[in-house]
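Lay summary

Proteins are chains of building blocks that fold into shapes. Our project writes down both the chain and a compact code for its shape. Here are two examples, one after the other.
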Amino acid sequence: MGGLGRLMMTAGTLILLFVAYQLWGTGLQEAHSQDTLGTQFEQVLAQSRNTSTTRMSTSTTVPGGTGPITVVPAPVAPNLPLPAYGDPVAHISIPRIGITRTVVEGVTVPQLARGPGHYPESPLPGQKGNVAIAGHRTTYGQPFHNVDKLQPGDQILTKTVQGDFVYVVDSLEIVQPNDVAILEDKGDNRLTLIACHPKYSLSQRIIVHATLEGEAAPAIAGQDKLREKAGKTGGSTDNLAEGDSVQRSVDGSGLSGKRSSRTPAILWGLAAAGVWLATWLAQTAIRRRNRARTGGTPGRGRRLLAWSPYVVGLPIFLVALYVFFENFGRLLPGNY
């Protein structure tokens, strides 16, 4: 019974650690990715400004992201870089809920782990049509954690190589995960934010609809063909033959994700278990040797020495456990 009890306590501790990893540990990965993406995007902006004159706009806002907006368009650059899958494509800022993120091109699990993801088959922020961006609510930095608090009139600020653009929230709605209608062109210039709903669940999606203020930017040369190919291949344009096709849905290659190979999770799980077992065996061996030498209760120094294997083994175990959690999480049906 004692052994069974210790086993159940260990299992419970591991489950709690995994929950902590999902809620907070994944945020460490996202923060590192955001630093990298932010630096890359600033380089892209600097390069585009040095080579040509981009469309810039000025806007006035008030705290909370509401108030009058003034948009002043300028000429559009003729030679701008096309977005590549996995590259930063925009900055997005939502004053009402206090978030600022760099948006990455793509909505697969690896990309959404880095920050909000732009659907490659949709226009870029500021362009004509329905711009679609998805993001997590409770894991990987939870960029869209409080999108349910947005209200009509709130502002969403975006920046791309074509300039600065302001969207104003119109409405929020809850849809089913397979409702692809929200990605369709509605004949206007809008931004559609997509996240799981309710929090800590994949059962539905919360959708934020916002309308572009001012003049929309045109598509970059060659972008229409890239978007068409992305629509056929489910978002990624890398190493895919012409004519490949997958069914697009809000959760098809986005928030609910695709499962990965079990092998890395199994190997890292065994590694973590092996480290802990070796640590426990070393601690047990030292404790038994102390008892044999003293013939009774060992002194304080020897008791402390018996716990020394954990000083070395525990950090190694936690690193292996972290990597195991990272790979195990990819086996689950979805990331929220």
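And here is the second example, written the same way.
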Amino acid sequence: MPNTRPEIRPADDWSAKIAVAEELVPLIGRLHRENGIVLSVHGRSLLNLSPIDIVRIHRFARHVDGEELSIDFTSELVRAAAAINPGAASIDVARLSAEFLAAGKPPIDVFVAAELASIANGGDSNTRVGRDVVLYGFGRIGRLIARILLSRSADIGGLQLRAIVVRHGGAKDLVKRASLLRRDSVHGPFNGSITVDEANNRIIANGTSIQVIYANDPADVDYPAYGIENCVIVDNTGRWRDEEGLSQHVKSKGVGRVLLTAPGKGALKNVVFGINDNTIVDDDRIITAASCTTNAITPVLKVINDEFGVSYGHVETVHSFTNDQNLIDNFHTGDRRGRSAVLNMVITETGAARAVAKALPELAGKLTGNAIRVPTPDVSMAILNLTLERDVTKEELNAFLRNASLNSSLRQQIDYIESAEVVSTDFLGSRRAGIVDGLATITSGNHAVVYVWYDNEYGYSHQVVRVLEKMGGVSRPFFPTPKG
């Protein structure tokens, strides 16, 4: 193998780059299927991408010197990684490339062997045991979590979607639920094949058999009867938000733990992945992944508070409408939410600002919040109006947030963009919890206004899956190790 980093191809050498990407596609898939490796570029997964998408990701991944990330380097790295038969891990190619350059471009096989020594020859993956997952409820978030889990179904020893539990919706229930998984007006078609086994109440998606269980109450289900043991229940219904209500799940046979995909009430542990997921312990039977807004703003608030200190802040959320609102004016138990969601901006309350303190206690009592629901189906924005403990310029704050999105331990949660052209639909499908819009940042002395976009469905669902992996004991180690 070459001893130095391959020369970066000219920008117009498109065909040659595509040829390299075409060779990479099966290698990336094989590493994932056989070794549990997930490759990414600055947090953007390379799994299941087309050659054009792989080239595009490299095109916009820049080193500190402004050079384009070399797809040739990625090719050499992937081959060198495959040669050591690694165990399950998440590997960020862009960050490894930066470390490779900083190390003076050593022989790449030696470099990779040293960086991934702890997972060489399978590491701990030989003892990695998969975890059964059951989705209780199959609405917007439930179906997106299903899509994410199914995209990783080839990963032996990872999360395995085994069943969904729903109330029977009448004739053609199974066919209609399969159709909702197959087609989505916001997120597009399912990537793969879906068939229905009506005789056995199953949906077959990309070769994965998903049992559809009809039940009215959590305690009614006998999971071992379907071959499901020690599963994690993901409750997407929002019907129960406290420990008493959600504890009905653990009364069923075969249930190990419960994860709520909504803000919890009472003493439930609220977990924002990347912030306080390290507080999850074996004794935690029921936890909540908080709300989409809490997940979007907490990582950004944490890094700002750590660096500049937050004395006080107000969070205003401009949020897409949700399924609990009415299409046209009708009765609703909530204030204002009875008015048409598709015709009005609707002021409503949000508990996100208070919920931040549950994951980030140092901000307790320092934040207020409100929300405006707007006539868009997905992607929202949080406006952080902050009084800091010291003065800061727009350039300093933006440079800090951009670096946090690339190099901090929260790079899975925080993204950053500077473009005068982007609008909300450009963030559909983002896997990050929140995306800082650098051009919109405002500063004046110790006052700062930061705008954070977020896909309140898909980005949040990825945060839920990250918590789910932690609860299921199937999280992968990161390479290189995050710093800060």
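What can we say about the second shape? The two ends are 33 Å apart (CA to CA).
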